[in-house]
Specification:
single chain; mainly alpha; globular
């Protein structure tokens, strides 16, 4: 399923860098709650946020993949990637 591959891309990116979702959010200039709420489906994702994620991951997670993650979470009620200790 495309959603699983997209979610795996973000989770893998964070895991490989031993980076917490909240730290990543701050690094890309976004609030942790904004990113978490978009990923959990509690907030509509913006294209600007998705572009920031793509830039912040150096393309490891594309704009389209991020939007897919968020929209699939809205449909499924899924939680964001787990936090990884820094």
């Amino acid at each position: 399923m495309a959603h699983s591959a997209a979610m795996d891309a973000l989770s893998s990116y964070l895991d490989e860098r031993n980076e917490r979702l909240s730290t990543f959010a701050v690094r890309i200039g976004r609030s942790p709650s904004t990113l978490s709420r978009a990923l959990s489906g509690q907030r509509d994702p913006s294209v600007d946020l998705a572009r920031d994620v793509e830039k912040g991951t150096q393309g490891s997670v594309t704009t389209l993949q991020f939007l897919e993650i968020c929209l699939a979470a809205q449909a499924a009620g899924q939680s964001p990637p787990s936090e990884v200790a820094a």
